Amino acid sequence: VQLQASGGGLVQAGGSLGLSCTASGVTLRNYHMGWFRQAPGRERDFVGAISRSGYGRVTVYTDAVKGRFTISRDNAKNTVYLQMTGLKPEDTAVYYCANSQNVNWRTAGGYNNWGRGTLVTVSS
Length: 124
Fold this sequence. Notes:
Elements: E1 2-6, E2 9-12, E3 17-24, E4 32-38, E5 44-50, E6 59-61, E7 69-74, E8 79-84, E9 93-100, E10 118-123
Parallel strand pairs: 2-10
Antiparallel strand pairs: 1-3, 3-8, 4-5, 4-9, 5-6, 7-8, 9-10
């Protein structure tokens, strides 16, 4: 499974940015989809996830982004989105999407396949 995150860029603190996750050779509706981020010098952190089709499109978020970030999916476009608002400098990181069919999809441990990331830089 080849995943690709896109849409990153430079944004001022308080601004918004939307990321997309697309895939080749796989139908994303069959997977729970997670978003992760890795800041310079830090480990990759779980941001949130959305359940696969048929599970009610349940979303979960880490406390650091709850209320500011929204994960959604468009199965017709085979795309998963991460909409980020109220961005802070500490949100600066490379953002990755990942897929899972694991029962632990609500946690970082449920993922073992990450795509190519996209850099988000939030200036103060």
